[in-house]
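The following block was generated as part of the benchmark described in Methods. Ligand: flavin mononucleotide.
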Amino acid sequence: MKIDFKEFPLILAPMAGVTDIGFRSVASSFGADATVTEMLSARAMFHNPKKTELMTLTTAEERVKIAQIFGHEPDFMVKAVQSDLLAKFDSIDINMGCPAPKIVKNGEGSALMDDLSLAGKIVSTVKGATGRPVSVKFRKGHKTENFMDFAAMCEDCGADFITFHARTVAQGYSGKADLEAIAKVKAKAKIPVIGNGDIVDLPSLEAMKSTGVDGVMIGRGSLGKPWLFAELKGNNMRVDKIAVVEKHVALLREHFEESWLKLYIRKHLLWYAANLPMAASLRLKLATCEDIDECLEILRKAFVSA
Ligand SMILES: Cc1cc2nc3c(=O)[nH]c(=O)nc-3n(C[C@H](O)[C@H](O)[C@H](O)COP(=O)(O)O)c2cc1C
């Protein structure tokens, strides 16, 4: 399946340690038109295939399935896109925006914004190695704000679309995404541009739309609130929130060990609880609860009395 840019797609952003099979699936059930895995190391895919296997689980509920890879060695990136692990994905995204120091120090993620020649080689080699659409996700810049040149490079090297999170690496997640920068990239680009940054409700979606972008990617606004996709599509359905949480957990339970899951799921449960009354005492209860079913019971009661 391909992204339909005529329909102004709403895409669930890749989020490491967050966009697991359960979360991607519940976001899809509320209308996310495409979903992206957590970033996958092209190298680790071969050293630790089990970990990648778990990160690349998908469900039929997901529409356009995108795998995001990162790395700095074109050969490994090619092997990654051609591996069986990624065969079920409709589209490949290359991470050239990650600001995490442990990634940047290896010349990967946003560090590639400082090396247009290597970044271009990666895009063209990956594109040449797969018949699927290839996209690049990047920021305003790492050492310099070279997003215009970078976007042009992606296009020249064969990217099918680009996703622009308009913050510099130094900014991290502070300040606001620069919508003017997004409008500038869109005005020049011949390929579709996906706008990303700070979409949390209809007004922020409208602000992003005013840049002329062809679709949007949504990350933090959907944490604990995968029904945001329905709200943004004007679908004010009644949401059975505890059923959403239960479905998210059940999908994870099918694949992950309970001992690992009870630690992992806590952050999601805290996000789901974030906007409930008595959030502080609820947070404390969830943060100290050792058993997933007990946590679900605490949340169920909180949703009922909200
Ligand atoms: C917890 C977390 C993990 C993230 N992991 C990734 C990742 O794996 N790959 C990536 O390209 N961006 C990653 N991002 C960045 C998001 O995809 C997105 O670009 C950013 O959060 C801005 O969008 P938002 O304002 O809608 O959250 C991550 C963000 C967060 C908060």
